[in-house]
Amino acid sequence: MRERQQFKEPELAANPAMRRPFPIVESRHPPTWRECQADAVLSPTGEIAMRIAQRWAATVGLGLVASCAIMYATCANATPPVSFYSANVTAIDRVSEGSVVITTKDSIATVCEWYRKNLRDRTGEKMTADGAHIFYTHSGATVDVEPGNRFDPGTKIGLVWDPKKFGPYSGK
């Protein structure tokens, strides 16, 4: 450890900065990128390259922000590609983001007829052995209409679609 110097001359002893072994320098934050750029001397081609890089970064940044905003707005305002049956509905159960089961008091014939008229891009219909009807669409979505039973008499309508493409179900 270094010892403090003892000054014999009165003018040096009176000066507080001289009494310390190391002078205290005003501390300052490290220079920022902009301060370094302001101090730098660039050639004309270097200055042009710097401006091109700054404009490119700004353009890419704005493009990224705009594309994220468009994707968010598309998903937030997206509607499932399948029409929701709404007559005499007793329950709507969300199974997943792209899957919903609707229970109605209407008969299976009434519901199937409604989907034959109102399903936008229907490509086909299949009837299963247990009496259910499955409607297929161009978008990949399906509608499954199943009859109720004596324990659960309501007609069940299962709707399934791709939530990444058409957005999730925003209900319950």
Notable traits:
172 residues, alpha+beta, 6 strands, six-stranded antiparallel β-sheet, 6 helices, 2 domains
Protein structure class = alpha+beta
Poorly predicted parts:
72-78
Helicity level: 25-40%
Largest sheet: 6 strands, antiparallel
- Dominant shape: elongated
Strands, count: 6
Task: Quote the beta fraction.
Answer: 15-25%
Summary, kept brief:
The protein has six helices and six strands. It is α+β, with helices and mostly antiparallel strands.
Describe what this molecule looks like in 3D:
With 172 residues, the chain is of the alpha+beta class. The protein has two domains: 10-77, no CATH class; 89-166, no CATH class. It contains six helices and six strands. It has helices at 10-14, 16-19, 33-39, 44-77, 108-118, 163-166; strands spanning 89-96, 99-104, 122-127, 133-137, 142-146, 155-160. Strands 1-2-6-5-4-3 form a six-stranded antiparallel β-sheet, covered by helices on one side. Strand 1 and strand 2 (99-104) form a beta hairpin. The protein is elongated and about 105 Å long. It starts with 9 loop residues before the first helix and ends in a 6-residue tail after the last helix. 12% of the residues are buried.
Which helices and strands appear, and what pairs or packs with what?
Blueprint lengths: L9 H5 L1 H4 L13 H7 L4 H34 L11 E8 L2 E6 L3 H11 L3 E6 L5 E5 L4 E5 L8 E6 L2 H4 L6
Antiparallel strand pairs: 1-2, 2-6, 3-4, 4-5, 5-6
